[in-house]
Write a structure and sequence with these properties.
The protein has about 90 residues and is mostly helical.
């Protein structure tokens, strides 16, 4: 994930990363969010982060909350949590 193409195909590939990514991928996705000015690319990266953290919420959610406390863009984190819940198979168990 050296560089993301901000075309539709690039965003599709960015979304696919959410299905195979891990913690190191999350860090790279945040770099993409911080670097791009294209909202669609930001939100696709958020969707991927939400997908990744939905697989191990006990591990990732506290880290994400800490990260959000230091951010000026709370809407990005709201979107990530929304996506996490939508990918979670056991939303309210």
């Amino acid at each position: 994930m050296k560089e993301v193409d901000e075309t539709l195909w690039g965003r599709i590939m960015l979304g696919a990363v959410g299905y195979i990514g891990n913690q190191s991928t999350v860090d790279k996705l945040f770099q993409i969010i911080n670097k791009t000015t294209v909202d669609e690319t930001k939100f696709e990266a958020c969707r991927s982060i939400g997908n990744i953290i939905s697989r191990d919420q006990n591990k990732y959610v506290s880290q994400l909350i800490e990260r959000s406390d230091k951010s000026n863009d709370i809407y990005i984190y709201i979107y990530i949590f929304k996506e996490m819940l939508s990918f979670n198979e056991n939303n309210f168990s």
